[in-house]
């Protein structure tokens, strides 16, 4: 879902870059207020895990494939604002090291793959955690699916506004495929979260404070 170089007009990628920079700046400010020596390693490990997980593709259908985005998982473990910082770092490293997405489209990719998923997942998972572990799992799965579908929607709209592909063509294609990919995202996110909690029950964070997995 990373938008390649040359696919977006300046009238799209410039405001997207400015908006994403503002969001990430605010997320860094919010994260910095609550971060401590225990929080920083957790964020680093989560960034490395998501970076590695996104390199593994799984087949869907028709020759297409998908991979874990990880925004909802990061929110479940770290909280919304630290997760946004982590997702931004992952997308930037992918663009710089593997040319996965164009540099001029970096703002759009950061928004689609990081900011949007964190904003969507934050309230959903916070609500789900009120109902214990099962509520956390259900909200995490739904947040994972929704974050993928919404990311594909915004990606399609950005491409259409740039004249890369007509909206009536790119939108159904993106939504149908990514509705399936989103289901994998939800399932894999829950499995990964349960594994993280099993290995270290105290690794879950909210607003920069380390808490037990599944805690509100």
Labels describing this entry:
216 residues; mainly alpha; Arp2/3 complex 21 kDa subunit ARPC3; two-stranded antiparallel sheet; 5% strand
How are the SSEs placed, and which strands pair?
Layout: H1 10-34, H2 39-53, E1 58-59, E2 65-66, H3 71-78, H4 80-98, H5 106-128, H6 132-161, H7 167-199, E3 204-206, E4 209-211
Antiparallel strand pairs: 1-2, 3-4
Fold and architecture overview:
With 216 residues, this protein is mainly alpha-helical. It is 71% helix and 5% strand. The protein has one domain: Arp2/3 complex 21 kDa subunit ARPC3 (Orthogonal Bundle). The strands form two sheets. A two-stranded antiparallel sheet has the order 1-2. Strands 3-4 form a two-stranded antiparallel ribbon. α3 crosses α5 and α4 runs antiparallel to α5. The longest helix has 33 residues.
Please report the distance between the alpha carbons of the first and last residues: 31 Å
Query: How would the global form be characterised?
Result: globular
Count of discrete structural domains: 1
The ordered string of helix (H) and strand (E) elements is HHEEHHHHHEE
Mean pLDDT: 85
Sheet with the most strands: spatial strand order: 1-2
Q: What is the level-2 CATH architecture name?
A: Orthogonal Bundle
Q: How many H/I helical runs?
A: 7
How would you classify the helix and strand content by structural class? mainly alpha
Number of strands: 4
Task: Provide the gyration radius in Å.
Answer: 17 Å
CATH class: Mainly Alpha
Portion in helices: over 70%
